[in-house]
Amino acid sequence: MADTPSNKPRRGAGRVAFLARLDQFKQLIEAGNEQRTVYDDCGGEDELGISYSQFNRYVVRYITGAKDDGHQRKGIGQSAPQSPSPAATGAAGGQAGGNPAPAPKPGAKRPGFEHNPNSGNNRDDLI
């Protein structure tokens, strides 16, 4: 029973098929053909064993060499650009004078949230 071959394709078989025809894909794409046309003309999912979106990922990785700018992922070494806060610019809603709040000391406990179930029960407490 263990010797029977399965019809399920092995993991990585699509990448192997792509890399086997890498030179052909590179020539076609550099000649100005669209990626969809190259994918369809070369057999598509039936022959390559990969989806069109995976074909695009392989084209970027192995042919165009475009770097992933990570615009959707924040990994190590990537950080969002710091925009000036209202406090630093002195805009309304910031602290007066543009002085930032003092940094908490290491090991000091931050003030937590306290819920008062009786707040808002008086008419004077409401807006």
Number of distinct beta strands: 0
Largest sheet: none
Span between N and C termini? 76 Å
Unreliably modeled segments: none
**Whole-number mean pLDDT:** 74
- SS-based class: mainly alpha
Rg to the nearest angstrom? 29 Å
How much β-strand is present in the residues? under 5%
- Helical content (DSSP H or I, runs of 4+): 25-40%
Shape: elongated
Number of helices: 6
Order of helices and strands: HHHHHH
Give a quick precis of the structure.
The protein is built from 6 helices and no strands.
Molecular structure report:
Helices cover 36% and strands 0% of the residues. With 127 residues, it is an all-alpha fold. The chain is built from six helices and no strands.
Key structural traits:
127 residues, 6 helices, mainly alpha, elongated
Topology of this protein?
Blueprint: H1 13-20, H2 22-30, H3 35-41, H4 44-48, H5 52-64, H6 86-89
